[in-house]
């Protein structure tokens, strides 16, 4: 309640103008979000969504670049000196065939609320592109609608690499980093619907999240008649079962503080019952809190498959696929806290001990640049579930738009003092070249 009493009290003239512009366009923003909700598209193929975002940003007289990592849309004004803040919105929907709004062909639906992010991003663009607001900033701002946040599975990756020339087809942000589309970004600003249970309107900061590695495991055995001469065969299904048993028994060796999760999926498990199965295709995903934790757990998983294959006389063919990097925790920056207070929203701040076992490709960005983040309320049902839907348009579309715009303004006003301070303190793990090298070293 304390926050509500203070609403707007400390806002300057520009901040009031930012809020007024977004309020004046609230209906348009809601329609924008709901149109995208009705037309979900899958990762790297978000053509309609991307075109809609690009048209809107062109309407604000921004220079718009399209086709980045296939569907990415980035609008900039780069001519202003000072740090660049890039506001990010995610274009893709998630596979959820049971969702009432799922696309009948692709089976994807906006069950992760990315349509709300896009509405928030264009709402922020509306306010920040205003001439007076823009003149008050000592830095540049970009609006970046990015493809494919949701995990792309192995089969689709091959097609993307082969037909679309996508170098890092596992995730949109990673491919954008690879092609240099983030080279001009100093600070990224991201948002999402709440990903962990939070009662408050806003959860400020970037909580630590698991990263993961992924691999395709092809188990080769030897076919033989299943009844006449099974001893002449090598049973690939039995190798898979043994490996999975070993992985189960290894779980006690996973460190609690690494939050390790192992997921296994059988894509192909033999052709006919009358023959000893000679081929099984599996996908394995290993999650952990740190890059080292992922590598340690993955080594154990690999050993389990190799050992099972050796015991039965089979063979493992392994293809290491790119995963997501963990999110490096970032406490709420003061710009975010001030913006939430200005707007009278209830909020909670990220604690250093908070951790989310799920993963996002925002993690990759956090290894290169400071990523300021907040999540928001305003929906019901479970994330990625058939019952997910936005129920409070003000909290899910309008409040995040104001948060993005006000935070950006606070970072870049007064000689961009807050942005410069963040950049002074930030220690990157990789630059672009080192990042690309790291991914190659883990996927070849
Ligand atoms: Zn999401």
Which features would summarize this protein structure in a list?
444 residues, alpha/beta, Aminopeptidase, Alpha-Beta Plaits, 2 domains, eight-stranded mixed sheet, four-stranded antiparallel sheet, 14 helices, 39% helix, 22% strand, elongated, disordered N terminus, binds zinc ion, Peptidase_M20_dimer, Peptidase M20 dimerisation domain-containing protein
Describe this structure in words.
This protein has 444 residues and is of the alpha/beta class. The chain has two domains: 2-208 and 326-443, Aminopeptidase, CATH 3.40.630; 211-323, Alpha-Beta Plaits (2-Layer Sandwich). 39% of the residues lie in helices and 22% in strands. The chain has 14 helices and 18 strands. The chain has helices at residues 2-5, 13-24, 26-38, 47-58, 114-128, 131-135, 154-164, 172-178, 236-250, 291-312, 334-342, 362-366, 393-425, 432-443, and strands at 63-68, 72-77, 84-90, 94-95, 108-109, 140-146, 187-193, 202-204, 208-209, 211-220, 261-269, 279-288, 315-324, 347-349, 355-356, 371-376, 379-380, 389-390. The strands form five sheets. It has an eight-stranded mixed β-sheet, sandwiched between helices. A hairpin with an 8-residue loop joins strand 17 and strand 18. Helix 3 (26-38) runs antiparallel to helix 5 (114-128), helix 3 crosses helix 13 (393-425) and helix 5 crosses helix 13 (393-425). The longest helix has 33 residues, at 393-425. The protein is elongated. Mean pLDDT is 95; it is low at 1-5. Residues 112, 114, 149, 192 line the site of zinc ion.
């Amino acid at each position: 309640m304390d926050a509500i009493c203070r609403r707007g009290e400390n806002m300057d003239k520009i901040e009031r103008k930012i809020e007024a512009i977004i309020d004046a366009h609230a209906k348009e923003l809601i329609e924008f979000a709901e149109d995208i909700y009705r037309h979900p598209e899958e990762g790297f193929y978000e053509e309609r969504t991307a075109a809609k975002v690009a048209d809107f940003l062109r309407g604000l007289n921004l220079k718009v670049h399209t086709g980045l990592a296939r569907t990415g849309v980035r609008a900039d004004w780069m001519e202003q000196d000072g740090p660049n803040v890039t506001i990010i919105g995610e274009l893709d929907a998630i596979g959820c065939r049971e969702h009432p709004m799922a696309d009948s062909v692709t089976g994807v639906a906006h069950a992760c609320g990315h349509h709300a992010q896009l509405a928030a991003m264009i709402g922020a663009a509306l306010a920040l592109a205003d001439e007076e607001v823009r003149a008050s900033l000592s830095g540049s701002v970009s609006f970046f609608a990015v493809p494919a946040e949701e995990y792309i599975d192995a089969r689709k990756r091959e097609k993307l690499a082969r037909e679309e020339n996508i170098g890092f087809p596992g995730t949109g942000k990673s491919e954008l980093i690879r092609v240099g589309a983030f080279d001009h970004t100093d600070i990224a600003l991201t948002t999402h619907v709440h990903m962990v249970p939070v009662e408050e309107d806003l959860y400020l900061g970037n909580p630590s999240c698991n990263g993961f590695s992924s691999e395709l495991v092809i188990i080769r055995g030897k076919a033989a008649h299943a009844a006449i001469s099974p001893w002449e065969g090598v049973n690939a299904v039995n190798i898979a079962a043994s490996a999975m048993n070993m992985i189960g028994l290894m779980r006690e060796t996973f460190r609690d503080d690494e939050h390790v999760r192992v997921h296994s999926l059988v894509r192909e498990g033999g052709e006919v019952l009358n023959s000893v199965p000679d081929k099984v295709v599996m996908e394995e995903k290993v999650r952990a809190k740190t890059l080292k934790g992922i590598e340690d757990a993955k080594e154990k998983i690999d050993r389990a498959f190799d050992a099972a294959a050796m015991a039965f006389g089979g063979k493992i063919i392994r293809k290491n696929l790119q995963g997501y990097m963990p999110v490096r925790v970032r406490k709420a920056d003061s710009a975010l806290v001030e913006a939430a207070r200005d707007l009278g929203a209830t909020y909670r701040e990220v604690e250093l001990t908070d951790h989310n076992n799920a993963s996002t490709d925002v993690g990759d960005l956090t290894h290169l640049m400071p990523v300021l983040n907040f999540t928001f309320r305003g929906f019901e049902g479970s994330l990625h579930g058939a019952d997910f839907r936005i129920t409070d348009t003000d909290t899910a579309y309008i409040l995040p738009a104001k948060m993005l715009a006000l935070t950006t303004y606070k970072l870049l006003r007064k000689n961009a003092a807050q942005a410069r301070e963040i950049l002074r303190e930030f220690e990157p793990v990789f630059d672009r070249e080192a990042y690309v090298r790291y991914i190659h070293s883990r996927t070849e």
